[in-house]
């Protein structure tokens, strides 16, 4: 019970602050509606409008790009990490593109994939894949050397060591990379929904609400996007706890 | 000590190894008799780990040969117990699965694997739950699992690199008693690295004292004390005499 008390108090405090700001007329009521209005507008959009569908579309896109990123990033990262010299030679490229804002690559991806659905998925998958690859490679590179030697002396072949030791050693780091990757995929998908010809998705809904001065709905949609990101992060933390019970022990 | 070739389980000839131009071994010879427990005692950094790692095939040598009854280490079943059990066991496998792992690699049938695990558990009088994960066990229990894993393959040669140095004294004493009983029962040729003189004498048939680098043999001490060597053996006249001799050698050659 105690674990919930603090965050709930924080959330109530935040809403109170918002209400006080409205009372003090810190901003134009058109731009800063009271929390109650934001809530009713958002509730109406969820139950009668398209907000639920928008949320679902964003979840779908995020999951699809995340899946592609994982399928590419994990095996490639593990393979590169197993050959540290090879990883060192591609490290600069990985780091460079990892540091490049994905939004700066929208035009390039639009040229490559056209102004539609596949571009959103491709950019998000690209960004997430680099993060996942980088973490997987480092997980393997930092594998405890003693464990590798132990497997070798027990007669494990190269591929066996890879499957029985390196992948497991890297698993905690791989999951950290996947958690970072899914968060990044969500960020990129939402931005892509704003700027790459969309008719649905949370990004599209936010920018639409803003242009139509539906401030209550805009705040509500931002909140839904935030809740989504928070939930994804939490989900992956739970998965990490459950599946890599040995991490850090 | 000259050992007839037919009794020698391990013969090392002209071993050379250097790190970054600094020689650790330059022409090192050693024969180990079959079934003997050889303790290798020497100051930190003198090359004890380097020696058994080369013997175990974990580290390439610069020159010389290490032969097991004429065979290369690749053709010999070996067991190895690392100093750091925490980093040697697989924490994603349960203790029993750690022990089964090398047996599965060997492709043994399930019934044989279970038979060996049960026999090891009986020999070492294991009372804790082997179904637990290594990190749920105490340090002594983890190192015991390591030892069982190394012995599961029924090795021809067993290597132990300071197996007790991360454990407290009480745990060390009880593990030492268990280990000597089992090693003497199965008669496996053993190389034990230690920087604890008492431990080296208690566990060994023969004690090799090494000098600082470049490493040579300071003394080669036969330890003909009767087995088993319990805590009482530590104060027996034979033990005290050997310890005194070793300390003299240590003062003269190693610490000089
Ligand atoms: N991989 C390595 N690279 C460079 N020097 C090493 C390496 N391994 C061991 N050494 C050096 O060789 C010497 C012997 O090391 P080691 O066999 O680990 O000693 P110990 O007798 O304590 O087990 C030490 O001086 C150590 O610094
Ligand atoms: Mg050492």
UniProtKB/TrEMBL annotation, chain A:
It is a multi-pass membrane protein. PROSITE patterns: ABC_TM1. GO terms for cellular component: plasma membrane. Pfam families: BPD_transp_1. This is NitT/TauT family transport system permease protein. PANTHER family: ABC TRANSPORTER PERMEASE PROTEIN MJ0413-RELATED, ALKANE SULFONATE ABC TRANSPORTER-RELATED, MEMBRANE SUBUNIT. The chain crosses the membrane at residues 63-80, 92-115, 121-141, 176-196, 216-239. Belongs to the binding-protein-dependent transport system permease family. It is found in: Cell membrane. InterPro entries: MetI-like (IPR000515), MetI-like_sf (IPR035906). Its main location: membrane. Residues 55-240 form the ABC transmembrane type-1 domain. Keywords: Cell membrane, Membrane, Transmembrane, Transmembrane helix, Transport. Coiled coil: none annotated. One of its GO terms (biological process) is transmembrane transport.
TrEMBL record, chain B:
Signal peptide: none annotated. Keywords: ATP-binding, Cell membrane, Membrane, Nucleotide-binding, Transport. It holds the Pfam family ABC_tran. It comes from the Bacteria. One of its GO terms (molecular function) is ATP hydrolysis activity. CDD domains: ABC_Carb_Solutes_like (cd03259). GO terms for cellular component: membrane. The keyword Membrane applies. SUPFAM superfamilies: P-loop containing nucleoside triphosphate hydrolases. Residues 10-237 form the ABC transporter domain. Belongs to the ABC transporter superfamily. This is NitT/TauT family transport system ATP-binding protein.
């Amino acid at each position: 019970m105690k674990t919930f008390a603090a965050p709930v108090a924080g959330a109530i405090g935040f809403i109170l602050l918002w209400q006080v700001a409205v009372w003090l007329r810190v901003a134009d009521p058109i731009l800063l509606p009271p929390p109650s209005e934001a809530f009713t507008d958002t509730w109406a959009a969820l139950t009668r409008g398209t907000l639920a569908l928008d949320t679902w579309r964003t979840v779908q896109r995020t999951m699809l790009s995340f899946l592609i990123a994982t399928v590419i990033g994990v095996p490639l990262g593990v393979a590169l990490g197993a050959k540290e010299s090879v990883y060192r030679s591609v490290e600069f490229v990985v780091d460079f593109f990892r540091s490049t804002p994905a939004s700066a690559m929208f035009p390039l991806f639009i040229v490559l994939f056209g102004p539609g659905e596949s571009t959103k998925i491709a950019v998000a998958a690209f960004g997430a894949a680099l993060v996942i690859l980088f973490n997987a490679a480092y997980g393997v590179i930092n594998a405890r050397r003693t464990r590798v030697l132990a497997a070798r002396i027990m007669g494990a072949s190269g591929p066996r060591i890879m499957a029985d030791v390196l992948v497991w050693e890297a698993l905690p780091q791989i999951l950290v990379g996947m958690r970072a990757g899914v968060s990044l995929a969500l960020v990129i998908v939402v931005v892509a929904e704003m700027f790459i010809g969309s008719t649905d998705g949370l990004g599209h809904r936010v920018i639409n609400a803003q242009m139509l001065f539906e401030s209550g709905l805009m705040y509500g949609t931002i909140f839904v996007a935030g809740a989504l990101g928070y939930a994804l992060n939490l989900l992956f933390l739970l998965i990490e706890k459950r599946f890599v019970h040995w991490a850090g022990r | 000590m000259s050992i007839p070739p037919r009794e020698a389980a391990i013969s090392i000839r002209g071993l050379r190894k250097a790190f970054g131009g600094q020689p650790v071994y330059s022409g090192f010879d050693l024969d180990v008799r079959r079934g003997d427990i050889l303790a290798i005692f020497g100051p930190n950094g003198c090359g004890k780990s380097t020696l058994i790692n080369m013997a175990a095939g974990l580290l390439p040598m610069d020159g010389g040969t290490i032969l097991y009854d004429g065979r290369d280490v690749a053709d010999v079943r070996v067991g190895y117990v690392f100093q750091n059990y925490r980093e040697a066991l697989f924490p994603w496998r349960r203790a029993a699965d750690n022990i089964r792992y090398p047996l599965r690699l060997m492709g043994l049938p399930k019934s044989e694997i279970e038979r060996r695990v049960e026999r090891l558990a009986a020999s070492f009088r294991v009372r804790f739950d082997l179904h637990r994960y290594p990190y749920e066990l105490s340090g002594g229990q983890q190192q015991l699992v390591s030892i069982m894993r190394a012995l599961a393959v029924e090795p021809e040669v067993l290597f132990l690199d300071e197996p007790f140095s991360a454990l407290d004294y009480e745990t060390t004493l009880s593990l030492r008693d268990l280990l000597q009983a089992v090693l003497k029962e199965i008669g496996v040729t053993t190389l034990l690295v230690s920087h604890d003189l008492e431990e080296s004498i208690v566990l060994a048939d023969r004690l090799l004292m090494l000098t600082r680098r470049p490493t040579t043999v300071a003394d080669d001490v036969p330890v003909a004390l009767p087995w088993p060597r319990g805590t009482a053996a530590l104060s027996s006249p034979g033990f005290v005499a050997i310890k005194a001799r070793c300390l003299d050698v240590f003062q003269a050659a190693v610490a000089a």
